[in-house]
Write a structure and sequence with these properties.
Layout: E1 2-6, H1 13-27, E2 31-36, E3 50-54, H2 68-83, E4 87-91, H3 93-108, E5 116-120, H4 132-144, E6 147-150, H5 153-163, E7 169-171, H6 190-193, E8 199-204, H7 213-226, E9 229-234, H8 240-249, E10 256-260, H9 266-269, E11 274-277, H10 286-293, E12 298-301, E13 316-319, H11 324-335, H12 338-352, H13 357-377
Parallel strand pairs: 1-2, 1-4, 2-3, 4-5, 5-6, 6-7, 8-9, 8-11, 9-10, 11-12, 12-13
Helix pairs in contact: 2-3, 3-4, 7-11, 10-12
The structure holds ligand GMT.
């Protein structure tokens, strides 16, 4: 099959899922065309089966807002015609589902049918999409997609509640390539960042308010008072400066390492002992799953889809968001003995195995076939 993928090319979870999915589909013999404004960060290699088409938005002084949807829908039309793309998979509803629908309509004028599969990722529904300024167009785009998937049952329910849509939504959980999380002695350099007796605690996110970055620091502060430890903060975003100030105020700057955005999260996860994700909302929590795949137990909130990923007492613990003391207590209970930590590490890995890329990706192939069938018969 020839599959077009539209996504955000950044470090965010939706772009990561879209890229890893495209790469796996290409390994399975499909021809994959990424259509986006920059080469996706996890897309390192182009090959005969993996193509990247850049969307350019020419700047013009009249425009206060650059018309990205217009440029994107034009590019989709051109690429579908040039490469005979069979199906278009858009990740993150805004504005991708909308641009996909416009492209579909333009192609129809020329007698070409293009099924649109929309995957909802979270903030496109919970934080941004349901804002009154966007809601009408997002509802329209969801209802007009030939197939809609969501990354968790919780997000499916949020979508039905917030958008009052009767659209059939298929839940396809996010996945992880377990091969990429096999530790290699060469790349796993714990000694560079922590002393042998210290526990390593990690957080990965885009440092937005919803991630509750101050809670991450406060949980760590409580842990380090009982157990010698270091905190690895991976990512960039608006809350970073505040986080550094909080570390200074708590006098723990020397124990917290801010590593910025990196494509090599695995090289930190491989020597981490615990992962913190106390988010206010989280449709799935891909970063937690990637940690678990690296044998790292997770202390998380119980928001949204996290309950479908992190299993209490097996891969970690969950608490209501904001319950910093409870999260710290649970973290200490995991970290304080070698045998308990080992048991949770095994539990984390076993839980992650349920989300093996090879088990999940066929569900997307089924959705593509279904969308093709529906689109042609409509
Ligand atoms: O977490 C973010 O803010 C980034 C965002 C995105 O769209 O890139 O992540 C969302 O999609 C991820 C992949 O499906 C999910 O794992 C995240 O839980 C979800 N984020 C939120 O719901 C806040």
């Amino acid at each position: 099959m020839k599959i077009g993928i539209v996504c955000y090319p950044t470090f965010g979870g939706s772009g990561v899922v879209a890229t890893e999915l495209g790469l796996e589909l290409s390994r399975k013999g499909h021809e994959v065309h990424f259509i986006t404004y920059r080469q996706p960060v996890r897309l390192e290699l182009l090959s005969p089966n993996v193509h990247f088409h850049e969307v350019n938005v020419p700047k013009y002084p009249l425009f206060h807002y650059q018309p990205y949807e217009l440029a994107l829908s034009s590019k989709i039309v051109d690429m579908v015609k040039m490469h005979n793309i069979d199906v278009l998979h858009v990740h993150y509803a805004i504005p991708h589902a909308y641009a996909g629908y416009m492209a579909k309509k333009m192609l129809l004028e020329e007698g070409i049918t293009l099924p649109i599969v929309t995957t909802l990722h979270g903030t496109d529904i919970t934080l941004v999409g349901s804002h009154p300024f966007y809601k009408t167009a997002v509802t329209f785009s969801i209802n007009k997609s030939d197939a809609v998937t969501s990354v968790s049952q919780s997000l499916k329910e949020d979508t039905q509640r917030l958008f009052n849509t009767k659209k059939d939504i298929t839940v396809i959980p996010n996945f992880v390539d377990l091969e990429k999380h096999k530790p290699t002695k060469k790349d796993c350099r714990r000694d560079v960042l922590a002393k042998p007796h210290e526990r390593v605690i990690t957080h990965v996110s885009n440092f937005r308010a919803v991630k509750r970055i101050p809670d991450v620091i406060k949980i760590f502060d409580a842990i380090q008072k009982k157990i010698p430890s270091k905190l690895m903060m991976i990512g960039e975003g608006p809350e970073r400066e505040k986080a550094e100030q909080l570390c200074a105020a708590l006098n723990i700057e020397e124990k917290v390492v801010f590593l910025g955005n990196t494509n090599e999260v695995n090289k930190i996860l491989c020597f981490s002992d615990l992962f913190l994700l106390p988010s206010e909302t989280e449709s799935f929590g891909l970063s937690a799953l990637e940690a678990m795949a690296s044998n790292v137990p997770v202390i998380s909130s119980d928001s949204g889809g996290l309950k479908e990923v992190n299993v209490a007492g097996v891969s970690g613990y969950l608490s209501p968001f904001g319950a910093v003391d409870e999260m710290a207590k649970n973290a200490i209970s995991i970290l304080k003995s070698e045998s308990t930590l080992e048991q949770f590490k095994i539990g984390a890995k076993t839980t992650a195995e349920k989300f093996d890329i090879h088990k999940i990706v066929p569900a997307y192939e089924d959705v593509y076939h279904m969308a093709l069938k529906n689109c042609i018969s409509n």
